[in-house]
Amino acid sequence: MEIYFKKSANPVSKAARTLFWFGPGFLTILWLSLVTLFHQPLKAEPRPIDVRWYSIYLGQQKIGYVKETGMRIQQKGIWYFKTVSESRIIFNRLGKKVEMVVNSEYLESEDGRLKKVVSNQLLSAQPVLIEAEVKEDKVSLKTKTGSRAFNRELPYTGTLLGPVGIGRLSSDKLINLGDKVEYRTLLAEISQIASGERILAGEEELDFGQGKIKTRKIEEKLSGLSYNRFVWVDEQGNEVKAVEPSPFGEMITLLSDEDEALSGLEKESPSQEQYRATLIKANVRLPQSRALDRMVVRLKHKKPELGWPEMENEYQQVLEKTGNDLVMELRIVKVESAKKTELSAEEKERYLKANAYLDCEDQEVKRVAREVAGFGKDNFKKALLLRDWVSKNLSFDLGFIFAPASEVIRSKRGTCAGYATLLASLLRATGIPSRYLIGLAYINGVWGGHAWVEAWINGRWVPLDSALPSPGVADPARLAVARSSLEDGLGESLFVAQKVFGYLDIEILEFSLKGRTIKVSEPQPLYEIRDGIYWNPGLQISLKAPEGFDFSDLDKVWPDKTLLTLKGPEGKVVRLIQESWFPADDQDKRLISLLNREVKEGKLFYHKVWGKRCPVLAGSEKSAASIMNGLDLFVVTAEGKNSESLLKMVLENFQNKLVVD
């Protein structure tokens, strides 16, 4: 059966960006700034300690600082150059203060060859320490988190330069317009060997208030990154300014002094609206989004020169590629039909092995995995038990950037990234290979950056999501763009994701639910109001306003759950809220718990809506009802005098043309 809907002429927000968790571009920008910021040229004689302060701005707002200290030191009679970088960024993520602190030390030989890097990162409550020792053809990496340490090696060829070596190379070779230098370096903070290229783009005079400085403007490109950054260096090769893109706008690092760098930081972080602007507004409000069987979407790349990452897998297929667009079919995975494919021995080891972020050998992780999943043979059943445990026991907290599973399982808090790292670790602890995914997912009217997992079950990779759970496998209202074992940290996934994060528009063309195909055709508004009746063609719901009431708050999207508000005489207010499905042991008790959030005291009774028995909690000044329709959950509240009567009137006028069991 096919149902044809109309679609608006301009369905996707032009300002749409990303995401629910802290954007990968933003993290990589900071790490790159740390590596390449202090470019003090080497001199043969000992010299005093050099200290430089930089302010970090996002557009016009200060969000952080970097303190760079350079010195020559002697070890066992050999002179080295040591650079110490201390950085701090504070920002506002949907009303939650988030702080990132990264302190790193770089040790180089006198000719600029990188010898050692020590980086201490505080991206959550638990610090992560990375120690890298550069040897002849490999880098030995040790990552410490909590009481555990993990070792691995990164092979490389050629010579790895440190920040001083890169600065010296630039100072010596970038003389004339168009001159180019190439180098290789270690981004220890994200466990990546990177190749870099610098081109002299011009000369400029910059005014810092204390006088003008003659600078050379350099365009810089690092392998794996989806963008170029611009760097301005003074006549000695020291960096005085850098500009690079981010999902929130241009990020600017500017030479400063200590007082300026430290002043006003706490109160000048990006606003909530600035963060909301990074979300991609959907062109239709999806009904039963966690229960869909299939979707077809058009992806429009705003910077096609960046290329597309590998988008196809068993359940994501490219149907059409034209110009800057991809049309993709996203399908639910049928886990019941086993395949005969097997992972190689190398793949099994990679996706079962403990690492700093997915520590399946952590004692608490092992205990929970054993107690929750048991020792049965049905891996899918065990995976769902673990998924449900994570969903029920964690609290969503936007105050983190990225936390290892060993921290998440103890704090019981995290973003979707924390939910994913913990679930992947629990799966590995019970013997099920798993990997970490990042991409885009739909929720309550928007697409945003998201993280979930895949588990190897019945000969295929099966997506599972504990932050946006479905009753079974993860629904197809999502688009995976990068997968990783996290053995090498987040670097590889971040580099891949940067090809599309912040550069996509997404248009929903059709979706399927329980055998019904619903097509979205032009033109279709997100909602309509005619003769006092609200109609949402996506959700297939309508609501007639009581006499004297006016509609408002019609364009709210995640994280605001409000679908609409009705404001009436004598301060009376009605709200319609869309909640998400949750793997509760008793769904009726959960519906009542949602009412208890809205109404402090009242009488509980049941009322029929759309033929369904729905709990109602009626108080003296506020009443509320919960309605479960398939996996869609609505809460209706009424405030003011005679709130119970008002609520019953609203429920009688609340209609749904897509009622499901």
Q: Could you give the topology of this structure?
A:
Elements: E1 2-7, H1 24-36, E2 50-58, E3 61-75, E4 78-93, E5 96-109, E6 114-122, E7 128-134, E8 138-145, E9 148-155, H2 163-173, E10 180-187, E11 192-207, E12 212-222, E13 229-233, E14 239-244, E15 251-256, H3 258-262, H4 272-276, E16 280-281, E17 294-301, E18 316-322, E19 325-331, H5 345-352, H6 363-373, H7 379-393, E20 395-396, H8 405-411, E21 413-414, H9 416-429, E22 434-443, E23 446-457, E24 460-464, E25 478-484, H10 491-497, E26 504-513, E27 516-524, E28 528-530, E29 533-536, E30 541-544, E31 550-552, E32 562-567, E33 573-579, H11 587-598, E34 603-609, E35 612-618, E36 622-629, E37 632-639, H12 643-652, E38 654-656
Parallel strand pairs: 1-27, 20-21
Antiparallel strand pairs: 2-3, 2-15, 3-4, 4-5, 5-6, 6-7, 7-8, 8-9, 10-11, 11-12, 12-13, 13-14, 14-15, 16-23, 17-19, 17-26, 18-19, 22-23, 22-25, 23-24, 26-27, 28-29, 29-30, 30-38, 31-32, 32-33, 33-37, 34-35, 35-36, 36-37
Helix pairs in contact: 6-9, 7-9, 8-9
